[in-house]
Amino acid sequence: MIKSIWIFALSFLGIFIIDQNIKSLFINGFSYDTGCISLILAYNKGVAFSMLSFLGEKLKYIQLLLIVSVFVYMVFHKEIFKKYSLPLGIILGAGSSNIYDRFIHGGVVDYVYWHCGFDFAIFNFADVMIDVGVVAILYLSYKTKR
To answer: Most buried among 42, 90, 123, 146, by the most CB within 10 A?
Structure first.
């Protein structure tokens, strides 16, 4: 169990720190533009594709409640925590970094804008890591059932 706690803590802190450092580059003025990808600063007041932005300030508290709920669930379901400590650390670290942005900057700091052939939502490293964590949980679940 101690090993799982270390894996969770290191993945949580690692993702949080990496994401916040990347975001600070853009907050401090970094930008880069190509024909397909632009690295530009944007503040997302909603969630994916700016959905739920109408919730305003309430959104950050709803998301904070969700993160705390997942953490409390993990405390009471140690077998799940032990099995998924790495992807849960990645997901909660990335989610916490985005929620931190809401409290500090008033919205999530996004910076990767894909516009080659079609316009895609602007996203950040934490968003990608949440997807990676979810895929890892699905893979581990599939692998266990086989």
So the answer is: 90
Segment 113-121 mean pLDDT: 82
Q: Where are the alpha helices (DSSP H) in the chain?
A: 2-27, 58-76, 78-83, 85-105, 125-145
- Computed from CA positions of residues 76, 82, 84, 89, in that sequence, does the dihedral angle turn out positive or negative? positive
pLDDT at 146 over 70: no
pLDDT at 121: 81
pLDDT value for 142:
92
Laid out side by side, the sheet with 37-44 consists of 32-33, 37-44, 108-114
Angstrom distance (rounded) from CA 74 to CA 99:
19
Nearest to 127 by CA among 87, 106, 98: 98
Q: Known catalytic residues?
A: 110, 127
At position 116, the amino acid (one-letter code) is C
Q: What is the pLDDT of residues 66-86, one digit of tens each?
A: 999 998 998 899 998 999 999
